[in-house]
Amino acid sequence: MVKSEALFCRLVSVDTLFSFDGIIPSAPDFQLRLISLIEQFNKALLVENQAPEESEALCRALCDYFDKRLSSNAQNNSLSWQRYSLVQYFYGFVDSEEALPLSARLDALLNADSEIIFRYAWKLLTLVMQIEGSTDALVSLRAAKRARYFSRARTETPPSEHATASWVSPRAGAAGSPRLMIFVIGPFAGKWFSQSNLSSGSEHGILWVIEENANGLAKRMAYLKKNNIALATMAYFPLLADGFESSSIMIEQITAWKYAFSSIRLSEPLPCMLGLYTRLSQQRSAHDPDRAIWTGGLAEPPYGHLKLEHQWASLLAELEANDDGKDLYAIQRHAVASTLLSWLAESRIMNVLQTLFDSTQLDFAGITLADHGQGFTRHGAWSLWLSERYGILPGLSASIALPPLPEIPLPPVEEPPPAPSPAPIPLPVEIPRRRRWPKAVAALLLLCLAGGIGYAIQQDAVEIRGQISQIKPIQRLLGINDKPDASAFLQLVNNAPLFENGSSNLMPESQHILTQLVPEMARNPLQMYLIIGHSDNTGSATVNMALSTERARVIRDWLVEHSGLAASQFIVEGAGNSRPIASNATQEGRAQNRRVEIIPLSMQDYKD
Asked: Quick one: DSSP state of residue 440?
């Protein structure tokens, strides 16, 4: 990416932050930041041998655009932007009757000989249409120059499908069963992805497992290899751009994971894909606003030598190729992603991530970028960097959406080896006829013999099966479940309400209900349990999800305190109002749906 393009992306990023209800703490400071950006942009164009007149005309159009954008922005009307006008700063007072309309300036720029100036002017035209609308002048201008835009030399569009699964271990199982286990790791795994633990994807072909420490991951991988379980494995390392208060804290957390992985030995190198989450554009689905727009994915194998910077460049090329000339959201995503790269590089986060992959058994396998959320959830490391560089803070979202998991291609199903050809059947040989017992007599003798053997075995059948069932490999083979009955736990929890309405505070009678579970748990000290919180449909889905998760955590904390079991033996999940067992139309039905389920799991061997 040439320097002028990087600076143009930063200008578009500032404009995009306005679309996110950006806040300007200080108008004079913000004006100086914009002035500096435009001056650097103009110098970069001249260094790249652009005509001075065309470069100056483009910068004048940018000043006109930002003055209109800031003056018409309801969020910042109190700033009285006329006092800080960019046009007045650069060009002095201009009589409004003599000033050319912005559409006329764009018309001249779109007729420029330089393809670089034309491309910047075309994107600026798309930005102008978001504040002025589809006026006749702008629509005519776009129609007249569309042919030139699409005839320009373009970056080759990356393939729509990324690596399919040639990286997968040949142990991949048969179709219809989980074939890929993905470990979600890193400093954000436990806090932001706990609801996805033991969840499935791609029609149950993927099993997602949340791992909050490196030792747990090593034990799980060792278990899979020891027992020759037919599951391919990879890791997913998510990063929330505003997840920590500052870049230094994020670096500290990533470094801690690097040291943790450096101190253990995995059974084999583990492919690991990096995922970044932030808001990049205004595009959202009307029926599912929390759905993310994904870019990037798994790279082509082999892994172990890939560099984060090169993969990020490929991701930016994909974003640029997605711009079809009329998509405002594609322009926003490309610009903000480019600025995000600058933050990662300047704050040394990219360098620390590369060190993580270079010094551990995690093989960097690609990067995916999630355009996610209705707004920024907090002013953290990424937001504060934007404020320091450009004098604007992104607006905060009214609700918090939990980050989704990316789509990962499934490994291919191994074709079974061809069955051996049947041995040739020998031709019948003529045998001299002998005198034989009649068939009826022979059948009678066999029936009596079988009856006698069956009578003898019947006396000790229960005892023999009881002895065999104590051998764990036989248990797995026969499908015998020696775990406590899950329905008993479910029934106890549903007998009476545990929580106050709309709260995660336990009701007084809850103590008696939960106390009944403690003796059974004490008899199975190695058992693991899944605790699922549920709610009725009162309130928003986001609030219900958070409330149900908090209720499950409260139950876990109570059981840890009173049962003597470790917190690691409980997996907490919030289901919100997504799994009702009764109608929410009645008060009784809603009371039944506000429940917590405690389910025994056959997962203790993973922790051995």
From this structure: H
Rounded CA separation 168/87 (Å) = 58
pLDDT, tens digit (0-9, with 9 covering 90-100), for 426-465: 544 444 444 444 555 455 445 444 454 444 434 433 333 3
Over the stretch 63-112, which tens digit does the pLDDT of each residue have? 999 999 888 765 555 567 888 899 989 988 665 545 678 889 999 999 99
Confidence at 570, pLDDT banded by 50, 70, 90: confident
In the chain, the amino acid numbered 532 is I
Tokens of 486: 């899950």
35, 41 contact by CB (below 8 A): no
Alpha-carbon distances of 286 from 198, 282, 592, rounded to whole Å: 29, 12, 31
**21 Ramachandran zone, left/alpha/beta (phi>0; psi -120 to 50):** left
Sign of the CA dihedral 297, 303, 308, 309? negative
Which tokens hold the place of 580?
């009702």
Cβ(290)–Cβ(123) under 8 Å? no
**Residue-wise over 467-482: b if at least 16 C-beta within 10 A, else e?**
eeeeeeeeeeeeeeee
Tell me the H-state helices in 72-193: 86-91, 102-110, 115-132, 136-151, 189-192
Burial level of 552, CB count in 10 A (0-12/13-18/19+)?
buried
Angstrom distances, CA of residue 73 to CA of 24, 33, 80, 473, 517: 11, 18, 11, 69, 59
pTM confidence score:
0.67
In the predicted structure, residue 134 carries a pLDDT above the cut 70? yes
Beta-carbon contacts of residue 18 (< 8 Å; ≥ 6 apart): 69, 70, 73, 75, 392
Residue 183 · residue 390 · CB < 8 Å: no
DSSP-assigned letter for residue 15? H
Q: Angle of helix 115-132 relative to helix 102-110, nearest 10 degrees?
A: 150
Structure tokens at 119: 């491309």
Q: By the 8 A CB rule, do 300 and 385 touch?
A: no
| Whole-number pLDDT of residue 353 | 96
Helix, strand, or coil here: 173?
coil
- Token digits of residue 347: 């704050």
Q: Which amino acid is at 367?
A: I
Instruction: Answer whether residue 494 shows pLDDT above 50.
Output: no
